[in-house]
Amino acid sequence: MTPGAAVDDLKSLAERFVLFGRACGADEIEVGLGDDTEFEVDVRLGRIENLVEAGTRSMGLRVIKDGKTAFAGSSDLTPETIEGLIRNAVRRAELASPDPCAGLPDSFSPAVDPAGLDLYDPAVAVLDPAEKIRLAMETERIALSDSRIVNSHGSSCHTHEGVSVLSNSRGFLGAYRKTFAGLNVGLQAGETDDLAEDFWFSSETHLDALAGPEEIARTAVARTIRHLKPRKIETQKAPVVFEPLMTGQILGFLFGCLTGTAVYQKSTFLGERLGDRIGREAVTVIDDGLLPRGLGSSPFDSEGVPSRRTVVIENGVLKSFLCNTYAARKIGASSTGNADGSGVGPGNFHLRPGGDAPEEIIRSTAKGLYLVRTLGQGFNPVTGDISLGAFGLWIENGEFAYPVSEITISGNLGDFLMNIERIGSDLIFNGSICGPTIKVSEMQIAGRS
Amino acid sequence: MSIFEDRFHLGPSDFTDVLETALSRGGDFAELFFEYRLHHSILIEEQIIKETAESVGLGLGIRVWSGDQTGFGYTNDLSPERMKKAARSAAAIAVAGGTPSPPAAFVSRSPLAGLYPVAEPAVSADLGRKIALVREAYEAALAVSPAIKKAKAAWGDYVQHILIANSEGLIVSDVRPMVKLTCTAIAEKGAVREYGFSGGGGRTGLEVFVSVRTPAEIGREAAEEALLLLEAADAPAGEMPVVLAAGEAGVLIHEAVGHLLEADFNRRKTSVFWNKMGARVGTDLVTIFDDPTIPAGRGSYAVDDEGTIPRRTLLIDKGVVSGLLTDRLSAKILGRPLTGHGRRQDYSEIPIPRMANTYIAAGPHDPEEILRSVGRGFYAKRLTGGQVEDSGKFTFSVSLGYFIENGRLTRPAKQATLIGTSLGILNRLCMAGTDLEFGRPTGTCGKEGQHVPINDGCPTLKISSMTVGGRG
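YS: structure for the whole thing
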């Protein structure tokens, strides 16, 4: 079947289920269908460990009856299964409670042309499995050729091609295709009881943007060996410089605190701060669901609302929460096109880069921690408290002095935003939540007493 | 008769056909894993039943081995053509031209009996009955105090039908139930806001919410934790003695030991334990088991996801490494016994060695005596998860703790990450209580992107020194 025919086939299937839902008594119904093909090869120590190839379809739907909502999902797309789920959902909706905020979006315009987003790369779709195996093999081979690397977690090459279709009873019908290509390697260095480990990767929608084996391997090696022979530092308060991946992790915490869902559920410490200064002047945070070739981009969200670019924090001032239709109605705002299943998800959520070269930020630090990896999930969105296991490099007089491990960093995300002193120029979109190198003036570090 | 035969009209001759296709390029082992999972959920917040959901997971995962290499394909369309297409994807791992050997004739295997005690099955229970349980938890949380401003109660139940048929002639099926009820409460005092959590359930039926922990108890526990945190100080920062509460602190054992004794990390020699079989790694008090056969246990199963009958496995015996958790592949490569710990998230994933219910055995000390032995330290009461890397560096997060001063719990303390290394912690485990218990059965473990239900447990434990990462 040609890709075009697959899209048309899914569209008519979705429309058919919408009609069936209306016939069963649903006031409103929305049906999303996906058709995905995945390929993955994991190699380790020069041999293939796993070779995975599969194609699957999936369905998610929502019905609303008398202001009451029910959801259903299935990986079995046979009409009798889906029709049974629709009938059950209409019956179940009757047992739920009426909710004035429930229901499909009111508007689906202005529609975004999927072609302009450039999310589908035919080169990914037709890439020969032998070439994917070669990419993974080559990445690991280059990494292992460095004598300081003692073992490998393996290298993987992963490609994905998917079609998303959405149809609803308000007449919306949309479809888009998207590709993904990823290449990564994980390494170990050091001796058995004193091992250091790290990894590197590249993730893109387009093959021509994917970093090559040489770049990924060299970066992974450098990241791994810099952890060798760590020291444990004393408990103290000190400035912390965040590598881009680490900034991304903190931005992930921030994203969770800026959804309309978190606001109405009172599960965010930023819920009452709209219009307030919550960060330094230099802090501008944007969610851009329309970034061409972006991993988090899409023409429309899971409710059919067009994706958009939303300035969330502008020059330190909280300007907008990110919402699906339900959360928007709950907090008296408009959907920002961030619906993701029954929740809220990021487009390309990022901290706007500043003018400082990352090297300059390190040079500006007399004494402090350069954070490169964390362990654990220590974030409380209700209070903003952060506490994480940490690995990094100790900075003295603007230069890396030695690696540190078995420490923790802690602080509060609210203080963190006010304490961002420097913002790097090195923003790279390698996920749906990304940031550049940043420096915060002070965090609590726990180590030796 | 399994649902795959009964409802999807698939029989042994179909399984043989697909296995033959999987072995057509000369692979030396092939396996079919059929799954049909029916899941229901309910969410109550803001006084209303906000949503209910029903989902169906149906699919077949096909695995082929060529030596120690794995080919894998999956499909959620169980038509003969689609199953054979997935089989050909899996077969690609084998070098074409090998001589296909025919699959062996099937011999049916029985899963362990008695692991899923169910009096009132969730799958057939009336939705109204489940809604009543969720509402009871929700209302109990709000009733604890006017300071509880928001509550959320969530229900999830599923029944997972599986059938495994492999080219060695093994055929086995299992029907695994699961129920879970959780409650989150948010307390407010002035500008300070905190949340608490509780939950219950297991591989059992609705009766667990009468016999073990009622929805009202779950709601109250969540609310009381949130209220306590309102009064809590920042946790301390630095190295100090740490006492771990019986039950939930089992997550420490899960992270610091369990993962590192999963056999895949040992066959790859990435685990800090790979060369320590028979070696002392901790004090005499460290005896650790993983037991998938605890009736109703959240991490339990009557047969693993590769068809192996599971058994309780001794991992560390009085400080000495004694066992590994194996799946078929790692057992074969390492020449170790099969322990029945090959698990997968669902049909679309390759099975890997995983924990089930992991615990450290009870020790000789009176829990009160353990506390009294600490002049100044930290007591970890409620844990919310952790993470480990193969080198043995691990963390776990404490949502609620207490300061220990002069052998007694004094002020509550909030939000701290504790960090250590496996060998460091096991050698500093200096007291173990008589009071072994399991944590609340709500936990899920993630590894290589696959999530499976687990549980863990421990008695009251004392670590002579550990880094506590509070805000000071």
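YS: worth flagging: DSSP finds eleven helices and 24 strands in chain B.
IM: good catch. Also Chain B has three domains: 3-108, 127-159+177-232, 237-469.
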